Amino acid sequence: MYTSAMAAPRRDALIGAAIGTVFVVTWSSGFIGAQLGAGAAPASTLLAWRFIVAGGLLLAWACWRRPRIPPRDLALHALIGALGQGGYLYGVFLAAEHGVSAGVDNLITALQPLVAAVLAVPVLGERVTRRQLAGFAAGLGGVALVVGGDLHGGAPAWAYALPLAATLCLVGATLIERRTRPSIGLIDALTVQAGISALLFTVLAGAGGDLAPPADPAFWTAIAVLVVLAMFGGYGLYWVNVRRSGVGRASALLYLTPPATMLGAWAMFGTTLTPLSLVGVLACAAAVAVVLRAPAAHGRDRRSPAQGSPAQAPVRRAGAGREESDGSPRTPERRRAASR
C-alpha cells in the first residue's frame, strides 16, 4: 500500500510532463502552420478555413453523439471561443499584417503567463509565490533573448497594441472558464468554440472578398497542421493543462513555445540560430522549471455541502445536542452510562 501511495504522485507527475511536452510542441505548430500558409493566402482566409474544417469535423462528431449542452454552457463557451480563439488569433495575425515583426509579436504575447498568474490571485484565489513570480519574469527575459534578433520597428504605433489585445483576450477566456466552470466536456467545449470562431472568421474573410480557398497544396498542408496539431492538439491541451494544474502553471508552459517555434523553423525553413537565442532557450526552460517546482496553487473551495465540503463536518457543542464519534446523538441513557 505504501508503494502504491508513493507511485501515484510519481505517475501523475509523469502524465503531466507528457501532456505538457506535447502541448508545447503542438501549440508551437500554429506558428509553423501560419508560416506555411502565409505565401498561399491572406491570414483571414487561413483562419476562416482553419475553423471551417475544425468546426465541421467536431460538428459531425457531435451529431453522432448528440450531447446535451445546457444554454448557460453554450453561451459561456461561445464567449470563451470568441476571446480565446477569435480575439487571440486575429490580434496576432493582424499585427503581423501591419508590420509588427514576429519577434515583437512573440515578446508581447509572452506577457500572457505573467498577466494570467497575477490576475488569477484576486479572480480565482490561486496562490502565486515569490519564486513563481521570479520564474515568470525570467521566462519573459528568456523569450526576449530568443526573439532578440527580430526585435525591430517599422509598424505604426497603434499596431503594437494588437498583440497586447490578443494576449488579454486569451487571459480573459482562461479566467472566465475557470471562474464559471462550465459543466460540459472538452470535446463539446471545442465544438462550440470552433463553431463561433468559424462564423466570425467566415464573415471577416467574406467581407474582404478572401473567403475562396486557393488550390495551392501548401495552403491545405497549412490547414492540416493548424487543425490537427494546433487546434486539436495545442489548444485542446491548453485547457487540459489549465484544468489539471491551474492557470499560472499552465500558462508558464507558454514560455517554451517561442524556443520550440524557433527550433522548428530552423529544422523546416533553415532559419539561423544565434548563440544568444540558444541562451534564451535555456533561460526559458529554467524559468518554467522554477514555476512548476514551486508548491501547487490552490483556489477557493467552491464545493457545496452536497459535495462534502470540510466546513460541513459535524461540530461538537456543549449540551444535549452533542454527538458521539459514530454520529449518533447522546441520549439521557447513554449519558448516565458514560458517567458510571
Account of the 3D structure:
Belongs to the EamA transporter family. Keywords: Membrane, Transmembrane, Transmembrane helix. The chain crosses the membrane at residues 12-34, 46-64, 76-95, 107-125, 132-151, 157-176, 183-207, 219-240, 252-269, 275-294. It is a multi-pass membrane protein. With 340 residues, the chain is mainly alpha-helical. The chain folds into two domains: 13-293, no CATH class; 313-339, no CATH class. 71% of the residues lie in helices and 0% in strands. The chain is built from 13 helices and no strands. It starts with a helix and ends with a helix.
Tags for this model:
single chain; 340 residues; mainly alpha; 2 domains; 71% helix
Question: Total helix count?
Answer: 13
Number of strands: 0
Could you tell me the radius of gyration in angstroms? 25 Å
- What are the low-pLDDT stretches, counting only 5+ consecutive residues below 50? 297-329
Give a brief outline of the structure.
The protein is an all-alpha fold and 340 residues long.
How do the strands and helices of this protein lay out in sequence?
Layout: H1 2-38, H2 43-65, H3 71-97, H4 102-109, H5 112-124, H6 130-146, H7 161-180, H8 186-207, H9 217-245, H10 247-252, H11 257-269, H12 275-293, H13 332-339
Subcellular location: Membrane
Transmembrane segments: 12-34, 46-64, 76-95, 107-125, 132-151, 157-176, 183-207, 219-240, 252-269, 275-294
Biased composition (Basic and acidic residues): 320-340
